[in-house]
Design brief:
Shape: globular
Radius of gyration: 26 Å
Strand content: 5-15%
Largest sheet: 6 strands, mixed
Structural class: alpha/beta
Number of domains: 3
Length: about 425
């Protein structure tokens, strides 16, 4: 069989999944056409749909000219950057391995996609590159509207607008209360660190997933949890003032504040997770309860280590805590975490075996189509997945994050 030429379209920010709920990669004319239509309906102004339509046009022209050709759209990740490029690289490796193309025609919708050209070139010869622009947009208009549209995207708005707005607000409050710039520096630094490790997105998703309804028992847990978070902030503020009054600075100041709020935060988290578990049980999503149980164990052990660690650093109150006590607590926490994880994963495996997942589509958390589930190996704790090319591979049951119409899996970063 003659090696094909790929008409390769790139959706680097994964709008196909984020807006149209279409999982990449898209292989073949029909899947690309269906995906482009769904994206165009979800957001008629998105340029990715134009790029896919253009890819199909090039594919048909080359097919008519007698070339062996295939059209493929690769998807990245909404966070862009390294994560998007890694996902595109992974998908491209699979395509090259299975289709063994001789070269490609690269279709792009703008400058950001050009950043992945070196990635494509490292794996495949590029015969031609085409950047697709909307004809009505002049250069100045195009720049203006691109900026406006990007600012509507929460990913960019949080950086371009959110950080300056937060900084101005905090500086104004701090100046009004005559607290100086140090508290602002601490808050902004923590905010930037949380964004750096992606914790803000996790917290946002957690809050969005909270289904508050007085018709469900879980609303009591949610109210209690959020109330305790507010209480924890007030306690931390009061403890900060007390620590300053005692002349504590540096690590002792941090330990004093942490010691005062860590148990309250644990109870708040347990209440929120309990509410999520109650919702999962009421909606017959029993599998997700194991996830929340594992989170509860993890938060409890982390709280224990932080409490003993802060007592050791502080050592103002009897009974005094020594480094040996902290080390023993750390070892015990690691042991309990290992045993708990093994037990919960065993329960997860048993549940998956009983759920009969065969035939369900497996999709990664950022929307990439992974294949179909063809079985569960209960003895090894593995999920068996078959790709669109009839090849099989396994993932651990711990990778399963949720089970609905599809099986959502957490893949390695």
């Amino acid at each position: 069989m003659e090696r094909p030429i790929l008409v390769l379209c790139i959706d680097r920010d994964n709008d196909l999944y984020e807006k149209g709920k279409v999982s990449g990669p898209l292989i073949g004319r029909k899947k690309n056409l269906d995906g482009a239509l769904k994206l165009a309906i979800a957001d008629p102004e998105d340029p990715d749909s134009n790029a896919i339509f253009y890819s199909i046009k090039i594919y048909e022209q080359m097919k008519k000219d007698g070339h062996e050709v295939e059209v493929v759209t690769l998807t990245g990740d909404k966070k862009m950057g390294y994560k998007a490029d890694k996902e595109i690289s992974s998908q491209l490796d699979k395509i090259v391995r299975e289709l063994n193309p001789v070269s490609c025609v690269l279709i792009s919708d703008g400058a950001s996609d050009e950043e992945i050209i070196p990635i494509i070139k490292s794996r495949l010869k590029i015969d031609s590159t085409k950047i697709v622009f909307i004809k009505q947009a002049k250069e100045l208009e195009k720049t203006y509207f691109v900026l406006i549209e990007k600012l509507k995207d929460p990913y960019y708005a949080k950086t371009v607008v959110g950080i300056p707005a937060l900084l101005i607000l905090l500086l104004s409050i701090s100046s009004y209360l005559q607290l100086g710039w140090e508290p602002v520096g601490i808050i902004v630094g923590l905010y930037l660190f949380v964004r750096l490790i992606g914790l803000d997105e996790y917290i946002g998703n957690f809050i969005r997933d909270v289904r508050f309804s007085v018709e469900k028992t879980s609303w009591i847990s949610y109210i209690g949890g959020f109330t305790l978070f507010i209480v924890a902030i007030l306690i931390a503020s009061q403890s900060f003032g007390e620590a300053m009054g005692l002349g504590l600075y540096g690590e002792k100041l941090a330990a004093y504040v942490l010691r005062s709020v860590v148990m309250v935060l644990l109870v708040a988290l347990v209440l929120l997770l309990s509410g999520k578990a109650i919702d999962a049980l009421s909606e017959k999503r029993q599998y997700e309860v194991t996830k929340y149980a594992l989170y509860m164990v993890g938060f409890t052990l982390a709280t224990l280590v932080l409490k003993v660690g802060s007592d050791w650093v502080l050592n103002l109150f009897e009974p005094y805590v020594y480094f040996s006590d902290f080390l023993l607590t750390l070892i015990l926490a690691i042991g309990i975490a290992y045993v708990s994880t093994k037990m919960i994963n065993g329960i997860r495996t048993d549940m998956l075996v009983r759920m009969k997942l065969e035939g369900k589509e497996a999709i990664s958390e950022h929307g990439t189509y992974l294949g179909k589930v063809v079985g569960v190996d209960g003895r090894r704790g593995k999920l068996i997945i078959q790709t669109m090319f009839e090849k099989k591979y396994t993932l651990p049951v711990s990778a399963v994050t949720s089970i609905e119409d599809n099986v959502i899996l957490r893949t390695s970063e």
